[in-house]
Amino acid sequence: MKQYLILLKGKGALDYSPEELQRRLEAYREWAFNLGERYVTGQRLEREGAHFIDKNTIKTDGPFLEAKEIIAGYVIFRADNLEEAIEITKTLPLIDYFEAFVRPLIPAD
Amino acid sequence: MNHSNTNQLAEHFFRHNYAKIVAVLVRYFGLDQVEIAEDIVQDTLVEAMEKWSLGNIPQNPGGWLMDVAKKKTINRLKRDQLFQSRVIPNLSQASFSPEVETDSTLRMIFACCHPSLPDESQVALALKTLCGLSITEIAHALLTNEATINKRLYRAKQKFRSGSIPFDIPTDGELPNRLDNVFTTLYLLFNEGYYSLHAEKMIRIDLCFEAIRLLKEVVVAFPSSSKAKALLALMLLNIARFESRIDSNRTLVVLAEQNRAAWDQSLVAEGIDYLYQSMEENQLSQYHLQAGIVAEHCLAKDFRSTNWASIYRQYTLLEMLDDSMTLQLNKAIARFYANEKEEALAGLLSLKSNPFMNENALYYITLAVFCSELGQKEQAAHFFETALKYSKSDTEKELIRKKMSG
Fold first, then answer.
1. Among A34, A6, A14, CA closest to B233
2. Among B79, B105, B221, B253, which residue's beta carbon has the most beta carbons within 10 A?
């Protein structure tokens, strides 16, 4: 009589239990609200535009040819202080592709 | 969902191979010659049908198709002096490996979703070139005629011929924008299937699953794109509820009355899984929030016990990215069931003079339902009457009358 081996390999199947699904949704909620509270607005900028050196000198009137001249967009978010703002900026995915400037906005009133 | 029908399997097999081979051939022809590639693949499929229907199905049908298409291409090019120098050297040493196929399909996705193509053309082009649907099928799916579809495709292919659209995979700085364009087009494609009440049910489900299939290719190629995963979650969680949205008379069933047991639990699980994965980056997009809202519905036991507070909060965040009135209406509904009933009603009433709302039947139905739940019977009756006046569809009028009497 021969000996046989059964190898069991995970199929990478999804965990269908309602508890697990709820747990994941819960994790998402926490993540989204945490991020959402700080996130105020963000928008992409069009490629065309002008770069003023002073009132009479327009350096570039776009489309910007060099990557270092591109200002790609902005994000406005809330943070308690500059240190926290810097920490949040580090988590920005775009930081891999662009330089970023973080400056506090002065309230309008 | 029953996709196991043999005919349909064959249909899917041909469609997907059509799209795959066209994408690979375009790699060697150039995007400006996409029509030649399509002709050759069409020919190949016809030949396959003729041979295979006699019972001689090769062991590797996909590989057989690719080989025959390759031979036909070489034959065609031999006759065609113009491409001699350009294509034959590439093609004769070309290997049609799975990697080349995947890469070509991705390039084709980016080309078909290029921002310089008009939106309408993008959807038609995606269906023709990425999904392999015939002109007749596309016309049927998009509720228009073949001439219109031909016109839209013609405009797109003119763009291809002009050489302004690259057949490549964008890199670095350009990538996020180009991916956004792909998401928009695939979401449009999905919605064509999901929201159209007219086309055949099978066709509509097909469109949705085609959008999901293409988006999955994008997710595999760009695993770090959290937006792609969030959109995929949104599509999966929506399609999970597809069957229960429409009754046997092709009438929309309101959420509160949908049969939740008919929701496809494996699609729900897959959707939640992608939503979970989409948190990898700290980027909260409109797709995240929309998927998060649908997820709340999918995991709720019933309408009343839904986590309306979470839904309301997500709509409030979504508001910053989407200022549409439809969103305002949905937000008010969530707020109402999140037990801020008076506030929700007051908020909705303050939008009365808005041009989108003031002749919108759905707006008055919502007001009427709020009033009747708050015990304001006279007000409710008044709003139901106004809703009847502005309603444009018979099924909706029927629904209003039912609510009035109940």
1. A14
2. B105
